[in-house]
């Protein structure tokens, strides 16, 4: 489990093909790694298969390559890194699993003082999971949603995030990894099952629950 608070920027030093996917060598300055530990690379949860003094190796399955941007990155590319959350640590950001939902398009960005206002694509399959003032993870970075429109949404990147991550280098048209909020995922799934319940009293409670979740910002009422 992660929080979406990037700890450092690493670089892909080498890439090789292996049965069922690829193997990446990532250079990092985050200290000593441990064999078998989890690490989020651009928001993708991977397992360290070899710990090195200046980085680590990870294996990336074909499923992960197809669902994320990791297969498109050239050797030398910068990547956001976050180590798994330690029990008892302060909880910044939001709950992030590292299970990327898909790649979306970075539509535009414009400066707003020291901040960057970004518009991102919102494909229909993800629309129900993104709500104003809710959380999303973009390239492993926890961000707050500003506005949600029919096919896009906006976020703001503050100066610290610009300096600590790779997001400032992203350009219009680039693909970025998206992970929706895990709470929204389970809420939407539960509500989708509600029409199958025959009990009238249960149906009424489901409506009340949905109304409360919309008011709290966990569900986008327009979807």
Task: Walk me through what this model shows.
The chain is 18% helix and 39% strand. With 223 residues, the protein is an alpha+beta fold. It folds into 3 domains: 8-83, Elongation Factor Tu (Ef-tu), domain 3 (Beta Barrel), CATH 2.40.30.20; 102-181, Elongation Factor Tu (Ef-tu), domain 3; 183-216. The chain has a 6-stranded antiparallel beta barrel with strand order 1-2-5-4-3-6. Strands 7-8-11-10-9-12 form a 6-stranded antiparallel barrel. The radius of gyration is 19 Å and the shape is globular.
Q: Gist?
A:
Helix content is 18%, strand content 39%.
CATH third-tier fold name of the largest domain: Elongation Factor Tu (Ef-tu), domain 3
The CATH level-2 architecture of the largest domain is identified as Beta Barrel
The best one-word shape is globular
| Share of helical residues | 10-25%
- Estimated share of beta-strand residues: 35-45%
Enumerate how many helices there are, as a single number. 4
**Rounded radius of gyration (Å):** 19 Å
Report the CATH C-level class of the largest domain.
Mainly Beta
H and E string: EEEEEHEEEEEEHEHH
Largest sheet: 6 strands, antiparallel, barrel
Distance between the termini: 28 Å
Any descriptors?
223 residues, 6-stranded antiparallel barrel, 3 domains, Elongation Factor Tu (Ef-tu), domain 3, 6-stranded antiparallel beta barrel, alpha+beta, 4 helices
């Amino acid at each position: 489990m992660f929080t979406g608070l990037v700890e450092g920027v690493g670089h892909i030093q080498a890439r090789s093909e292996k049965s069922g996917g690829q193997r990446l060598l990532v250079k990092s300055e985050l200290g000593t790694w441990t064999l078998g530990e989890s690490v989020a690379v651009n928001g993708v949860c991977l397992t360290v298969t070899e710990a090195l003094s200046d980085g680590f190796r990870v294996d990336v399955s074909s499923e992960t390559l197809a669902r994320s941007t990791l297969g498109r990155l050239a050797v030398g590319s910068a990547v956001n890194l976050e180590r798994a959350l330690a029990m008892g640590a302060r909880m910044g950001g939001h709950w992030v699993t590292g299970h990327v939902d898909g790649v979306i398009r970075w539509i535009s960005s414009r400066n707003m003082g020291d901040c960057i206002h970004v518009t991102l694509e919102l494909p229909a399959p993800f629309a129900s999971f993104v709500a104003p003032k809710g959380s999303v993870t973009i390239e492993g970075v926890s961000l707050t949603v500003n506005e949600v429109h029919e096919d896009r949404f906006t976020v703001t990147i503050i100066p610290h995030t610009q300096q600590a991550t790779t997001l400032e280098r992203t350009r219009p048209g680039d693909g970025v990894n998206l992970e929706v909020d895990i709470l929204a995922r389970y809420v939407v799934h539960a509500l989708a099952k509600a029409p199958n319940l025959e009990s009238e009293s249960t149906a009424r409670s489901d409506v009340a629950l949905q109304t409360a979740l919309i008011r709290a910002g966990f569900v986008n009422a327009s979807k």
